Write the structure tokens for this entry.
Amino acid sequence: MEPFLTSFTTSFIWGLAAFGLFVLILYQFAVKAVLAAVDAREAKIARELQESEDAYKKAKGIKEELDARMRGAEAKIAELMAEARKDAALHKEEMVEKGRQEIEALRVRSLRDIDAARYAAIVAVRAEIAQIAVTVAEKALRSNLDRAQKSLIDEALEAASQRKA
């Protein structure tokens, strides 16, 4: 076995030297570049992670602010709704009172109109009764009066009707 080691020792040393040189070159150019790229990638990931955490905190703050504003807006809306209901109830009461006043005015006007119509009817009935009484009296007088008296009455009636006209 000895001859195998002695015959390949030089090649082994040169191979080992070449491998060492390859590892040094690889370390110098490739490993440092890969490690630098990995470090840069880790730094980028850490920076992006920090940015996303900052963005999350900012979004959470904005959400809390918006929630507070929303609660304030809801309270304001509830307040406005209560005020609107109160105003609506007041307006309703005013409209009901106004309607009552209009109904009362209409009732009073209707009663006045009824009284006026009743008075006019009474006056018309009295005039008609008077006309009927005059007609009855005229007929009664004509039947009882003689002709001379009739002519005097006719003249008086004619004179009266000419005065009226």
User: Anything to note?
Assistant: Residues 2-164 form one domain.
